[in-house]
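Re: weekly structure request thread

Next one in the queue (216 aa):
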Amino acid sequence: MSHSLHRYGPVESLRGDYCIYARAAKGVNRGEGVGDKLRKILAIYTSSGVVNFGSSHGGKSFSNGLEAEEYAKTLDDSYGIIATFDDRESVKKVLTKAGEANTGISIVVSGLIDEVVKVAHECGLKPHTATLSLGIFGHTEKLPEDDVLEMVTMCGHSLVSTGLIKDVIAKVKAGKLSPEDAALIASKPCTCGIFNTSRCAKKFREILERESERAD
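Done, posted below.
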């Protein structure tokens, strides 16, 4: 899985940003009985400090009204679920509980590679494979400013637009939206649930703090 690999930002910001994927494999363990296994994993997510999860098929994420109970009913026809977390302890809880559940479903963790490997080792796990983002190449001068780039790259399918983020930033600066409400609006186009609303709200608060310092 690679659509969460290209998240952008300073290391300290990315320390609060992890995506965890559970995927059944076609021809191996996808099909009858997979729904019960995915429901177990969803329960692990929701009991371990989940920030967001979602369903592209359902057209919405947890941050925008998808309830876990509602989502669980649809998993018989699914092959995987994705969730987002904002701290390593939550990731550690998920990996520990997933290991104990032993569902046979593949688990992929996306985040800073050093942190992910450390967490895996702390859980007694050995990472099987690693995929790394090598950064951004080409006409980087055409990219939006860093504040915007940090937020749009939290939607790996590029559904959160630069225009939306700029509009929401302007409303936060004008006092028309709180950082938390702004994060929910920003996350809405990302229905698969990998948009980290916690990290996004924190970014909006940082922007407000900078504005306040400039005013002083």
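The CA atoms of residues 148 and 165 lie 6 Å apart. DSSP finds nine helices and five strands in the chain.
Next request, please.
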